[in-house]
Amino acid sequence: MHPNVLKVLVPQHTIAARVAELGREIAQDYAVRQPLLVGTLSGAFIFMADLARCIDPVPDGLAVDFLRASSYGGTATVTSGEVKLGMQLKTPLNGRHVLLVEDIVDTGTTAKRLVEELRGQGAASVEVVALLNKSPRRTVDMDLRYCGFECPDEFVIGYGLDYNEMYRSLPYVGVLKPECYQ
């Protein structure tokens, strides 16, 4: 365990098993729907890669794209409430069934804004796939179609989640020691 981690919330093997389950669910639900996985950078990149490989059998037309969105900045540990969008998708959304892949849904502000944006670009449907659901902090009505794990109201890192761009490569989800960010 990394010395700045207070405790491991979700160990690597548990993440792998749950991501495999999610992949099978998505493969079944989207078998004839040509899904487009849209990952939010930077936090969802590890989850997205693992999830994409676990969608088996692979539905015809499965595609992957990324966008950048954030409501955190620098060393912030709570959302600013303002969602900043970065990159544009390369894949046209008209008529596509989109799965928005998030590392964590906290207040729900970013995910809700992205769902609205994707629908506005012509997606036939948009569902959210989140590794972590931090529902105690939810401030907007947000439905997660697929969820890996419930997350307590603690500052978590690892498996793509960061603090100031650090700790993303940890193979587990852990709680960062408060003295590291206060």
Automatic annotation (TrEMBL):
Gene Ontology BP terms: GMP salvage; guanine salvage; hypoxanthine metabolic process; IMP salvage; purine ribonucleoside salvage
Pfam families named among the record's database cross-references: Pribosyltran
The protein's annotated pathway: Purine metabolism; IMP biosynthesis via salvage pathway; IMP from hypoxanthine: step 1/1
Enzyme Commission number(s) of this protein: 2.4.2.8
Domain Phosphoribosyltransferase, chain residue ranges per copy: 12-163
UniProt superkingdom: Eukaryota
GO cellular component: cytosol
Class in the EC hierarchy, top level: transferase
Keyword Glycosyltransferase listed: yes
Main localization (coarse): cytoplasm
Recorded catalytic activity of this chain's protein: IMP + diphosphate = hypoxanthine + 5-phospho-alpha-D-ribose 1-diphosphate
Gene3D superfamilies for this protein: 3.40.50.2020
InterPro entries linked: HGPRT (IPR050408), Hxn_phspho_trans (IPR005904), PRTase-like (IPR029057), PRTase_dom (IPR000836)
Recorded GO MF terms: hypoxanthine phosphoribosyltransferase activity; magnesium ion binding; nucleotide binding
UniProt KW keywords: Cytoplasm, Glycosyltransferase, Magnesium, Metal-binding, Nucleotide-binding, Purine salvage, Transferase
Co-factor(s): Mg(2+)
Signal peptide: none
Keyword Endoplasmic reticulum: no
Subcellular location: Cytoplasm
Family (UniProt): Belongs to the purine/pyrimidine phosphoribosyltransferase family.
PANTHER family linked: HYPOXANTHINE PHOSPHORIBOSYLTRANSFERASE, HYPOXANTHINE-GUANINE PHOSPHORIBOSYLTRANSFERASE
Protein name: Hypoxanthine phosphoribosyltransferase
Organism: [Myrmecia] bisecta
